[in-house]
Amino acid sequence: MRLLSAHLAPEIQKALLKDIRAIVAKAPLFTPTMPRWGKPLSVRMSNCGPLGWLSDKSGYRYEPVHPVTGQPWPAIPDRLMQLWQDLTGYPLPPEACLINYYRPDAKMGLHVDNDEEDFDAPILSVSLGDDARFRLGGRERKDPTQSFLLQSGDVLLLEGEDRLAYHGVDKIYPGTSTLLKEPGRINLTMRRVTKAGSDTRPEGASRD
Ligand code: MD3
Ligand code: FE
What we know:
Blueprint: E1 2-4, H1 10-26, E2 44-48, E3 52-56, E4 59-63, H2 78-88, E5 96-102, E6 108-111, E7 123-129, E8 131-136, E9 146-150, E10 155-158, E11 167-173, E12 185-191
Antiparallel strand pairs: 1-10, 2-5, 3-4, 5-12, 6-11, 7-10, 7-12, 8-9, 8-11
């Protein structure tokens, strides 16, 4: 894991927030639920990009359309595409940018991100708004964990071994940032989902 503290200047954070507001106006935040029993998660979500992550009674998965509006997800903002390019150097663009919205009482339990096909691609995450206590463990749930503070403007790059590590968000510290109008936190997580552009190319097309 590479934590780039205060990577995004306040003006950039504001511009990014404006981009996210425009996305959420078209693709409203929804409340995902746990697979099978349908217990709501405390984090609300939306997405941008060709694919969006969601969770409902049928399970965790990526979908090309919003679960409520049935519309395609809005495009990933150029400045996020650029950030992916600059920081990951990965040859393929991200396909999904998950938008997590945490009110002060929201948290995210320890989990692994493994609904993607491409585990070789890194994950890039951006934090906006109030501080959060983030926990990173190992490949197994019982492995020891370490806690970090994530602050507005921080960028996290997950690659290699940490790509499949357990992680979660234990706590939001309301009132620690003035970026958002209300107490809370936004996290953006960019991911490559499919291997080598299988979604956008005709069957059997050459990649070079
Ligand atoms: C470490 N989000 O959306 S972002 C998620 O702050 C998620 O909203 C958290 O976990 C949040 O899945 C953490 C940083 C992050 C993202 C993916 C990871 C850390 C990760 C994948 C592996 C290990
Ligand atoms: Fe995660």
